[in-house]
Amino acid sequence: MSRYFFYNVILVSLLNLMLFVPYLLIQYRYKGAIMSMLCAAIVGTALALLFMHVMKTFPGKGLPEILRLFMPKPLTIPILIVCAVMWLTASSITMYAFSVLINRFFNPDTSSLVVLVFMCLVCMYAATRSTLTVIFVLEVGLIVCVPIIVFLLFKAFNSPMLDWDAIRTVSHYWNRGPQVKPFAASLFVFTGYMNFFMFNRLNSPNFRLRFRWGTPIFCSLILLTSFFIPIGFHGTEGAADYLYIWSVTSDTLIMSYGFIERVIFVFLLMYLMLSLIFAMIGWHMGMEMIKSCLPEKKEAIDPARTPRSNWVIVGLFAVLTVAYAYWFNEKENLKITSHWIVLRACVEIVSVLFVFVLSLFGSGKRKKLVSHENTSHNAASPDGA
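^ that's the sequence the OP posted. Answer follows.
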């Protein structure tokens, strides 16, 4: 089961390479971006390790079940709704951004709204599946995409067009103090572990997370790559002129492999798949949060039939996403996203610390949970545990 934790970390960290995180960091390249990334790496690593330590004490339980152990259900509903909105917003922003990219680089004659509708239909079907199915789809998607993306990043590092002098120039500003927005943007790269607020339902009581040291190393490398490589290709000033900086950066690379020449087409296809998987997980998480607010109803982790409530809730998510894209343009979406990233960082920190406090002051209930785990735990681990 350890690999599924790292799958979520890898998904979120790689996906942020194509979205607004590099743009926000580059805007602060002279005003504390490097120190903000360093602080985010420390805080993100500490939160991830603390989070997994806490969730290990609640095997087979997601956030709704944990909250219900310590709080009456009416008090848990606002918390779960806030969490559902955060996951819905992350998924909707991602799909909106990629619908614009697909429209711009693949089919400019088609409205980005039409592209978004088709993406929502795909995610609707995927998100309504069981939690077990969702995490299996994540595994297959990463097995397909990650080797190709890593290969393309390796080509970028070895490109003769990469100007290391521009990278060294920006690195001289390492001693500028951290800022809130670049810190929050950098912290987003480390936030894949948050998906285990629901995927923890799949963990068996003997779950152990090995190779924890890999999380800060991988996320830090992706963070540095997303920031410095565009600067090396476009210069210290030119890098700030692009919103989707990595789409332009990938278009500067070429390959001589048969019919594949422009890297951008391969790059966008891989990230289209990752964005759909990310949205699938986000909508599934939000759906499960909202279902936990409804009258209690026992459901298996891998039910034989998809409940109707899944379609209703995820259908509402799709309508809200399309409505968001209809009401707001790219500039407005950028402003909303920059503020949302800061809010998300605050919610993430508060959520992890809140669950940690519950684990400290609920030792009696944790013992009761463990003693009844074998009889109440109906979730089968993907590893067969």
